[in-house]
Write a structure and sequence with these properties.
about 30% helix, alpha+beta, about 110 residues, 4 strands
Length: about 110
């Protein structure tokens, strides 16, 4: 049996480690986020609300974040500590579609 291993984030390095170990077969919504501050509390909240607070394009905001002090970061409006480091689903429709596809895959 092939188990599906899913990164629940923290940082990009979780998905990267899964890839290096050969356990990452597809991308999921928490793979490439910076979420070290609120971690599993935020992930659990997102699961409990059925991803409703992160699915729409208006779920994103440009926010200051201490981790990236010289720029505004793309975050979830309801979870401003979660930063989209490698994608811009706020301003890039393709990136938003990618995030929605990853959510639906999960």
């Amino acid at each position: 049996m092939n188990a599906t291993v899913i990164s629940l984030g923290g940082g990009c390095d979780a998905a990267q480690a899964l890839r290096e170990f050969g356990d990452r077969r597809q991308s999921y919504p928490f793979d490439w986020l910076w979420n070290l501050d609120t971690g599993l509390d935020t992930i659990c909240d997102i699961f409990v609300d059925g991803f409703a607070t992160i699915l729409d394009r208006d779920a994103y905001a440009l926010s200051p974040h201490y981790r990236f002090p010289d720029e505004l970061s793309v975050t979830y409006r309801d979870y401003p500590s979660v930063v989209h480091v490698h994608m811009d689903p706020l301003r890039n429709p393709d990136d938003h579609r990618t995030m929605v596809r990853r959510i639906k895959r999960l």
